[in-house]
Amino acid sequence: MDLRQTIFKAQHIKLPPLEQSETDGKEWSPLPWSLYFETQRTVSVSDTNFNIYASGTDNSGPIFVLHHGAGHSGLTFGLTSKHIYNSDPQSYTVVAPDFRGHGATTGNNQNDLSLDRMVDDLVGLFDALFPNNRREVVLVGHSMGGAIAAHAVSSKRIQNVRGLVLIDIVEGSAMDSLPSIPMFINARPQTLESVESAIRWHIESNSIQNHESARLSVPSLLVPINDGKRMTWRTQLLPTEKYWKEWYSGLSKTFVSAPTAKLLVLAGTDRLDKELLIAQMQGKFQLEVLPLAGHTVQEDLPDRVGDIVVLFWKRNRPLNIPVTRL
């Protein structure tokens, strides 16, 4: 189910309430980040203190930078990150930040999610983490994060980018869905009794299909209300509406023309726009479709997404061919 289908469902089907259900036998307690990453640290760039989850920071192989979508956090990539890192723990580095206005990141202007600001954040954070980098880089972005990653690659401000991966984001479907997104946001409960009830809501509403991933990622999406008894959403999405169009307008062209190998991972092909269809037939990017997943593909099928990203990197990494002197 892609983003457009998810929004359509929210328009026509009332999301399930937090009440007794067949899922009551499951465990709803949060899972710690330390089961999925080696380190958690804060890195200050410009006006923001970025919270960053990472593994393999002392390695010398490729760097996988994972950019979450609007309303999520770096922990949306927790299971996928672990799978990528475990594919070669002596070589790979995986970094999954909480970007501006999300998760445990703090600072000024946290509601400024403009395209230019977010691209500056990604580039500035990368430079702070990997100054004078000479290692190969793969940028991975989910939904809005894919748009930010695509523009960062096109700007050529991050060196040695060998791959760009977009997860479940297509300009055509995103632009068509913009008028319906407020209805989808308003369909969510505005307050929740506890972190556990929020985890259960995400599973029962099919927002996340993977129970383990929900237990890891959902707590980072919440903050306590002043009364201390209830929770609400860390990132208020409706105030960011003025930025939605600029995130996605022109994305297909930006993606197709990005000066690196490209991979598009989708939950369905029904919304590929004309530019992507033509480019895909011309072999300008790799397409992978995972129809059993919802919009948060990396949470629903983390091992599959991890395998796809690693194989994509291996297929496009530079070849070290020895030179034979005659």
Q: What is the 3D form? A: globular
Low-confidence stretches: 1-22
How far is the first residue's CA from the last residue's CA?
57 Å
Strand content: 15-25%
Mean pLDDT: 91
N-to-C series of helices and strands: HEEEHEEHEHEHHHHEEHHEHEHH
What profile does the largest beta sheet have? 9 strands, mixed
User: What would you report as the Rg, rounded to the nearest angstrom?
Assistant: 19 Å
Number of strands: 11
**Broad structural category:** alpha/beta
The helix content, as a percent range, equals 25-40%
Number of helix segments? 13
Give me a quick take on this structure.
The protein is of the alpha/beta class and 326 residues long. It has helices spanning 3-12, 78-87, 115-129, 144-155, 171-177, 181-186, 195-204, 211-217, 241-248, 251-257, 274-281, 297-300, 302-316; strands spanning 39-45, 48-55, 63-67, 93-98, 106-107, 137-142, 161-167, 222-224, 231-233, 261-266, 286-289.
Keywords:
single chain; 326 residues; alpha/beta; nine-stranded mixed β-sheet; two-stranded antiparallel sheet; 13 helices; 11 strands; 17% strand; disordered N terminus
What do these coordinates show?
It is a single chain. The chain is of the alpha/beta class. The chain is built from 13 helices and eleven strands. It has helices at 3-12, 78-87, 115-129, 144-155, 171-177, 181-186, 195-204, 211-217, 241-248, 251-257, 274-281, 297-300, 302-316; strands at residues 39-45, 48-55, 63-67, 93-98, 106-107, 137-142, 161-167, 222-224, 231-233, 261-266, 286-289. The strands form two sheets. Strands 1, 2, 3, 4, 5, 6, 7, 10 and 11 form a nine-stranded mixed beta sheet that branches. A two-stranded antiparallel ribbon has the order 8-9. Helix 3 (115-129) crosses helix 4 and helix 4 (144-155) crosses helix 10. Mean pLDDT is 91; it is low at 1-22.
